Amino acid sequence: MAAWDLFYVQGAKLLMEKEYEKSIEFFNEALPLTENHKLLAETYYSRSVAYYSLDEDDKAIADLKKASDYGNEKTLEILKENFNINYTPQKPSSSSAPNSGGSSSSVSNSKEYVGTSYDIVDNIDGGFFKRKHPSDGYLVFIINRQKGNPNINDIKFVFDGKEAMLNRNSSQTVYFPYLNGDICSLLRSLKSVYFMEMEGKNICYEYIAFNQIISTPLPIPQNEKDRFKKK
Predict the structure, then answer these.
(1) Which of 81, 125, 207 is nearest to 64 (CA)?
(2) Residue ranges per domain, the chain?
(3) How wide is the angle at C-alpha 183 spanned by C-alphas 187 and 120, nearest 5°?
(4) Are β-strands 192-199 and 139-144 bridged in parallel, bridged antiparallel, or unpaired?
């Protein structure tokens, strides 16, 4: 399953459960992950439903127009019937990036890059993750507590087949330069990774990061990679 699917499917599930604000967060993450017009139209339309359900009509209208721009014709009828708006779709610019409506999920080279020691647990029994995902295989990274707080809107795990990185918040990326073959094999098949941040014997944070698998090297500056590999 591609990265867009992971975020969109979860957003759609939350939308059906009437968790509108949470669903918007996932649609925000899905938008920058595809350039396919059909998928963009579906994402904008779904987010418009969430905004409309929250009585945020201006945002709903903007997303309906975007969905129409990307080819979703049914939104024209919705704009007319619900908002009395006659809209002429605009051809999207090939150079324009989709508007996520939230924090960007792209990796910024201005981030602080940190390293940490870690342990790996494969398919541990019980616990928070097992309760929420009883049938999924998964991998737990147990890492040292990092400075600052993780931000659920920014958390993303990226794996390039050899190395990995964790976007922990908007200004901090944790780099994992050394992963053995068994771990890499697991990561190639997993949709998500579970993290526990420890301070001594205490669990400070627990969170799940979608596993985004890319075919190009991690977007980390080479000088930063060299800095950790020299240690």
Answers:
(1) 81
(2) 3-83, 112-229
(3) 105
(4) parallel
Packing angle, helices 37-53 and 3-16, rounded to 10: 30
Residue type for 179, please? Answer: L
Residue 145 makes CB contacts below 8 A (sequence gap 6+) with 197, 198, 199, 204, 205
C-alpha closest to that of 72 among 50, 102, 47, 108: 47
For 188-230, write each residue's pLDDT tens digit: 888 778 888 988 888 888 777 778 888 889 988 888 888 887 6
Class of the CATH-defined domain 3-83: mainly alpha
Residue 162: which residues within 8 A CB-CB, separation 6 or more? 179, 184
pLDDT per residue as tens digits for the range 120-179: 775 544 443 343 333 344 678 899 998 888 876 678 889 999 999 998 888 899 999 888
Report yes or no on whether pTM surpasses 0.70: no
Residues 6+ apart with CB under 8 A from 192: 6, 133, 136, 138, 157, 208, 209, 210, 211
Block residue for tokens 């053995």: 180
What confidence tens digit (pLDDT) does each residue in 170-198 have? 889 999 988 888 889 888 888 778 888 98
Distance from C-alpha of 110 to C-alpha of 100, rounded to nearest angstrom: 20
Computed over every residue of the chain, the mean pLDDT equals: 81
Which structure tokens are listed for 99? 């508007």
